[in-house]
Design goal:
The protein is α/β, with parallel strands linked by helices and about 260 residues long. It contains twelve helices and nine strands.
């Protein structure tokens, strides 16, 4: 089974994360497949708009924790980010074509970073968003530390990150986290309608506009991603992360107040 589904229609390329049995959580192979597909789409003149979504009822659960656990204690979070999410987020912002996120269900962690990096976010009314990182004793990465406050404000970003509370689709729409909200059974049709509208537009001008927005609002994106990697290297070695991962896998509440 392919980890990433690809469908090109009328200039709109839909890329579907296809690990529904694992809540479309990212593995190294899935990230590589997505990077490759996006790089190719950026070069392909037939592709004028890109849509990213998830198979089944989940957009994405972020990093597959069990894969991370399998690497053992020698994993460098910094090196992992430099090979995976940092280039992914940069590529999404550098492709001079509109990229839409069709958030069809729960969206957390690095998958939230993916959605935030897209130009426009459409969400199903049944979707929800969880920042996720602090829940397993980590700091935000995948440019969430930059993009989330930029979209919803520093206070709200701090609250949702510290509490790890889910943000409902309706609340996400109210605070500007998503652009459009649709019934779940109409999300993809509405997304494709917008994609077709954009594909018929001046994509070259859209690309220059995206370049201008990057310079005006996201000038320090690459620096932020690198700094997030530094912080994640620190967080990944602490007791809080070990306890957070253990609690996640054991499906219990973490006990961060305990010391090793």
């Amino acid at each position: 089974m392919s980890l990433l589904l690809s469908d090109l229609k009328s200039g709109a390329l839909t890329l579907t994360l296809n690990r529904p049995e694992r809540a479309n959580a990212f593995t190294l192979d899935l990230i590589r497949a997505l990077l490759s597909a996006l790089e190719q789409a950026g070069r392909d003149s037939q592709v004028r708009v890109i849509v990213v979504t998830g198979a089944g009822r989940v957009f994405g659960a972020g990093q597959d924790i069990e894969e991370i656990k399998s690497y053992g204690d020698n994993l460098s979070y910094r090196e992992h980010l430099l090979k995976t999410y940092n280039p992914l987020i940069l590529l999404i912002r550098q492709i001079e074509k509109p990229i839409l996120a069709a958030v069809n269900g729960p969206c957390a962690g690095a998958s939230l970073g993916l959605a935030l990096a897209c130009d426009i976010r459409l969400a199903a009314e049944t979707a929800n968003f969880v920042v996720g990182f602090n829940g397993i004793g980590l700091a935000p990465d995948s440019a969430v530390s930059l993009l989330l406050p930029a979209l919803i404000g520093l206070g709200r970003a701090s609250e949702f990150t510290f509490t790890n509370a889910p943000i409902s689709a309706h609340r996400a729409f109210e605070i500007g986290l998503v652009n459009r909200l649709h019934p779940a059974d109409k999300l993809m049709a509405e997304t494709q309608k917008l994609a077709a509208q954009l594909a018929a537009g001046p994509v070259g001008a859209f690309g220059l506009t995206k370049r201008a927005f990057n310079r005006a609002a996201l000038r320090n994106l690459e620096e932020t991603l690198n700094y997030e990697a530094d912080l994640q290297e620190i967080a990944g070695k602490r007791f809080e992360h070990k306890e957070g991962v253990a609690a996640f896998l054991e499906k219990r509440k973490p006990h961060f107040e305990q010391t090793p």
